[in-house]
């Protein structure tokens, strides 16, 4: 799931160069520094801890759990087929001396074909999981960016950056930390979304019964 844990690197704009410009511009004279300070005051910046958002966002946790369950189910299906093929191989090896050359060759060709089909099946399962993970990544991206867009507008923010170990932001005041507020807002929005989905499903089921 490492791709999921890195998805906010795509979502959040890290704009340290802009901040440095606002802080260091106009160093030639004292009269030039004052407009720079006024200009920087016009920009409201906040940050979130990406790891905390992912670990506390109910949507992400539920999707991660579902993906893991699906992965385990597909793995069990593959193991069952692989064990079945291994049994056939063992039976062939045990009885090969009682077969004619033609019969042995026919069994071997059949086993090789089944082995090839098993590899193709394994690849299809991997592609299925990759596709599912990509779908979750896209949905996660859309949910978080949409919420941050609305949050920024309502709180007068021009920029939200990712601030945690490994990010390009070296220091940020705790007063700029909106992580908890974002987590709370995301979970509240997701809960409402689930409630609406449940109501629609209930109405659909009722209509179907009638």
Automatic annotation (TrEMBL):
Stored PANTHER family: CHAPERONE PROTEIN SKP (PTHR35089)
Name this protein carries in UniProt: OmpH family outer membrane protein
Keyword flag Membrane: yes
InterPro entries for this protein: Chaperone_Skp, Skp_dom_sf
UniProt GO MF annotations: unfolded protein binding
UniProt similarity note: Belongs to the Skp family.
UniProt KW keywords: Coiled coil, Membrane, Signal, Transmembrane, Transmembrane helix
